[in-house]
Protein 1
Amino acid sequence: MSRRTVVGVIGPGANATAQDLANAHRMGRLIAAEGWVTLTGGWNAGVMDAASRGAHEAGGLTLGLLPTRDTEGASPAVDLAIPTGLGEARNNLVVLASDALVCCGMSPGTASEAALALRAGRPLILVAPSPETVSFYGSLGHPAPVGVPDADAAIAELRRIIQSR
Amino acid sequence: MSRRTVVGVIGPGANATAQDLANAHRMGRLIAAEGWVTLTGGWNAGVMDAASRGAHEAGGLTLGLLPTRDTEGASPAVDLAIPTGLGEARNNLVVLASDALVCCGMSPGTASEAALALRAGRPLILVAPSPETVSFYGSLGHPAPVGVPDADAAIAELRRIIQSR
Amino acid sequence: MSRRTVVGVIGPGANATAQDLANAHRMGRLIAAEGWVTLTGGWNAGVMDAASRGAHEAGGLTLGLLPTRDTEGASPAVDLAIPTGLGEARNNLVVLASDALVCCGMSPGTASEAALALRAGRPLILVAPSPETVSFYGSLGHPAPVGVPDADAAIAELRRIIQSR
Amino acid sequence: MSRRTVVGVIGPGANATAQDLANAHRMGRLIAAEGWVTLTGGWNAGVMDAASRGAHEAGGLTLGLLPTRDTEGASPAVDLAIPTGLGEARNNLVVLASDALVCCGMSPGTASEAALALRAGRPLILVAPSPETVSFYGSLGHPAPVGVPDADAAIAELRRIIQSR
């Protein structure tokens, strides 16, 4: 059995903050250092590109699940670009394909992925979440996602999750 | 051209409150009275079933987009049950197939649909939303969804939206 | 229980022959006369449009599952246009949403739907199929689809299928 | 840019013949020897498993797009198992994610993938196809898929296709 562990990194595309990008980039580096695969929504933008570049620079394998039917617009740091042709329905695939997910920043698309992660029972870690994000996901009556201050704390949490599987 | 206007009603299945169910049932009645089609996630549970029954009792047409590959478990008040076989990826279809969406209550699945509605630019009305819901969707940097106190206020808002299209 | 019976009509879009169009149009009329819903891939082209127009002219309800994320390009004879946003992955939804399928003519997209119908165990009727089509689907080691000479023979076969469910 | 070339291998699961399995296994080996990624439908059965094992034994990377929402039942030779949760709608993803496809044997699911490949304009090579398969896909009025006698001829054809992109 050679199955690779896959960690999804989700977050805003166009409207990512500098902090979101820094967190995602370091997240990619740390995921790669563990020998895990970094999965994103694949675009050459925002958190998706930053996480893919971080992982790629650290020698990790990167996977992108694109909403489009070809690979145009994919991050150049994505090794395996999968054009799903599903539009935003691909967000559920990002969730299902991840052994655990890390969220750096928030946007409508990201919010849908975080909610689908709770729905599917996939572990979800929020890096430096806003108070609104913590309150909202905590109010949904499911086990609340874990909030951590930074990427290093997230990787410690991921190690715990992956080892206990 | 005989295209029918479609209004999606979204909300919790198993964990809907009595208030969610009452709002959804009245929402279905009022949508039917306008001559519009009521669309839900199709299950025989919670807000989906209540909205379908309300619409059906008022003589309206009801459409259900099920996550499963057959119609088992569909609400008996759904006239057209569409088994999508897509699992929760069908949530994006509920959004795209709706000219506007009304949200009665909250859950992880509902949260994903509300977020996808913002992402797709579909008008979204929140009926009696919690403070956490209002704060969170308002923080996403998109035009915030409209909050209304009850189904009658929602239908007034819907009339405005549909007429201006 | 008010569940409507749904019959899918599949066939070529741009490259439909005059015979395909005539068969699809009559098919729509006959499906509507039975009180069943006519389901197609929704486009304003070829067999999809012809079947929708036939059904619509006979007072039947028509449903279209579009590959796109909005309803632009839908046949004006489609009452309920569902933009799935799934591209050609929507072909599997056309199959699953149909209680039985009727195939008028052949194309790559149609071939995928006919194959998916066999895969899903949905009854499939081929109207005036080519010898290549009969040989190929008959060679797949599943119960072969039924071939009939025209729409009237197809409706007789459909009546038998629907009544035995 | 580190984008990997992906070759899809499609064919029957449960009902694959000994010849289909031998072709798929050698196909996997040859794809891996080129440095390409081998993509399949992911199951631990038939052509999917044989191609994954062949590629894995030759040190290649293997990717599986499963119809289910978890990785249970995946071939142990699949490195990256992507549970799509889409049922047979995932067949269109197998097509879109492949730079070119090789078909070893035939079944309803395989027939849908071959048809969707023609529809999407993805290069399709048929290894040792039956006369019915050649006649049918040749009759669809698109550029017909290329038929070859064995895996070695297929890899020569693939080299030509990939180099000309």
Protein 2
Amino acid sequence: MKIMVGGTFSPLHAGHKKLISRSFELAGPEGLVVVGLSSDNFAGRKSHPVMTYEARKAALERYIESLGTATTWEVEALNDRYGSALEADFDILVVSEETLPVGLEINKLRRAKGKKMVEIHQIACVLAEDGRWISSTRIIRGEIDDVGRVIRREE
Amino acid sequence: MKIMVGGTFSPLHAGHKKLISRSFELAGPEGLVVVGLSSDNFAGRKSHPVMTYEARKAALERYIESLGTATTWEVEALNDRYGSALEADFDILVVSEETLPVGLEINKLRRAKGKKMVEIHQIACVLAEDGRWISSTRIIRGEIDDVGRVIRREE
């Protein structure tokens, strides 16, 4: 199976790691995973400060290498929400609850172009210790760490 | 992996077959697939006539047997849209584009009950020869057959 998945991954937290590790499981050892990574220019539109593309890419590659997977993979820069997902020939788009709407939009745009529609796999979100989602925004605010431990409780 | 999937399957067409065969692939040979099948009472709310539960179950079982799968499976009667999916311990709910909203609702209800949220896998729809979706309604209307061949064109 050929899988596409994407994100900004700044910083790479437990929710992103699940998104990526599940993508590799779905691809299987003979499959391919293409990880789209927001370019600095595209990521610059986020409401919070973002690490450089090089730093984010290095952390992503270290994590993928730690999986010890036989699956072929590559990282591609995303200059918009879609990257090559509107044109590429692939099987499954892996999304989080946050990015499901983008996935549905990609299929709608593919259909309009006469491209094969793809399967969409939404992983379950990873909850932090406090029962709320793990998100980069919450980590940057200092509420939780990258595995979802609460750092400071609001009074 | 433990997979849940459901439908009325009246009649079982190429789109349903893809939904079911992909569920077995996602489960893997050591997994379990639970196929929810609308009861006669629940299916009776459809706008078109529905075959009996026994006839639909027999066709479904024949199809699953034709897959020659090693995966464990069972068919359970659905008396509502959720069946046991709100309570059961499982990994992935497999849905079509039509049933994605029910899948998202199941996760919301599971979360409210404190149950683990599940992954949602949406298969790509199967298009009929005329480029529109295959659906039981279109088959019953006599527009297409169960593999999506056009039977009669509107003038």
